[in-house]
Amino acid sequence: MHSVLILTAGYGEGHNAAARGLKEGFDLLGETNAEVLDLFAPAFGKYYQRSRGDYLKMANNTPALWAAIYTALDRFPFTSQLLSLLGPLKRELISALKTHRPSAVISVYPVYGHLIAAAAREAGLPGLKSYVLITDSITVNSVWYKCGADAFLVPNDDTAAVLSAARVPAENLFVSGFPVSTKYAAQGEARPDPGGSVPPRVLYMINGLPARAVALVERILRESSVELTVTAGKDEALKKTLEEMAARMQRRLTVLGWVNNMPQLLRRNHLLIGKAGGAAVQEALAAKTPMLITQILPGQEEGNARLLLQNGCGAHCPTNEAIVKSLAHLFERNADGWNQMHRHTCALSRPDAAITTARWLAQRIKNTASTPKRNFGLRANKD
User: Fold this and answer.
1) Pair 121, 229 in one domain
2) 123 and 62: one domain?
3) Sign of the C-alpha dihedral, residues 74, 76, 80, 86?
4) Is the same domain home to 343 and 280?
């Protein structure tokens, strides 16, 4: 049995979500042994943990600073300077390659792609196949593709067009979809359309800005007839505040903490309210659930938002007033607005991407000398 390493990092949830989903796809097929590794943890230890927190704080609290850094990474020819700082990561990569001796490596975080060729030579695997699975949409930082790879896999046609414009060869570029959990592809109970006796079901994923979240929930409970479910994450104080507010208002509200059944929640609800994070956007598309975007961080989240907006799968609602108005518009007149947005979302949805991507990669690994086959649900980018 062939084996692959899937390399990820914990800077944002999209990379880890893609790594988990792709591993599920390989495991479901049963033809390839797949291992997910975050080599930043052993390479940088406590500094890595601290930097993850610093990244989230900077992105949320000083978005202009993060935008400047993101742009600099995209435009500055920094590869040699960057690699000089990544010695510990390269050493961990060499060690992992010697231990696992994989047939291929799949990077779902961009930095690894710049290290694999040299690390493979030092590990005694000079012919190792390397694939880069890009988790961002449209606003793709050039760090992703300014490295050598046997193929670059992208989540959608819009992103393929961006890489094509950046002169990534068409034969090395494939539209794979974003590998969400295989649970999105499993058969489940059909979601009835809103209207008549079926109230609109709305899921609000709170991610920061708790004061705004409380105010928004209060307005929705007071002014809308939707059936609202809220996820508060690990913020127990916020969860308690929302529960007490709903009790005072004598309105129905489901308040959840940290959840691990997102496929079930997204497939049950008709609409998602949340920020334009990579995992949230891609999972909403997989569940065929339109989205109201509350917040867009500079850089990769701008592309996620553009993906939804330019394809008619969501709306940007930067204020609570805009969200309440959008809810009223989408679900009025027998939910005509929602039905239109839902049709566009279905057209972009690829819930089985983890399985089709794993199958395509497995065949490439089995027959590396053959011409890449454009099947299994993957599409070569058009010139």
Assistant:
1) no
2) yes
3) negative
4) yes
What is the radius of gyration, based on Cα positions, of the chain? 21
Query: Can you read off the two tokens belonging to residue 319?
Result: 């204020």
Q: What type of residue is 19? A: A
| φ, ψ at 8 (rounded to 5°) | -135, 180
Q: What pLDDT shows up at residue 375?
A: 40
Give pLDDT < 50 ranges for the chain. 369-377, 380-383
16-33 burial, b at 16+ Cβ within 10 Å, e below that, comes to bbbbbbbbbbbeebeebb
Same structural domain, 241 and 166: no
Dist. CA 210–CA 21, nearest whole Å = 30
161-183 per-position pLDDT tens digit: 999 999 999 999 999 999 999 99
Please give the tally of structural domains in the chain: 2
- d(C-alpha 369, C-alpha 237), whole Å: 57
Residue 69 tokens, joined: 């850094």
Question: How many CB atoms are located within 10 Å of the residue 77 CB?
Answer: 8
* Cα–Cα dist 220/316, whole Å: 17
In the prediction, which pLDDT does 195 show? 85
Predicted confidence at residue 78, as pLDDT, reads 54
The pLDDT, as a whole number, for residue 377 is 44
Task: Supply 335's token pair.
Answer: 């939910």
Indicate if the alpha-carbon torsion angle 190, 191, 194, 199 is positive or negative. Answer: positive
Same domain, residue pair 332 and 360: no
Asked if residue 184 lies in contact with residue 141, where contact means CB atoms within 8 angstroms, the answer is no
CA distance 150 to 177: 18
**For helices 87-100 and 40-61, what crossing angle results, to 10°?**
130
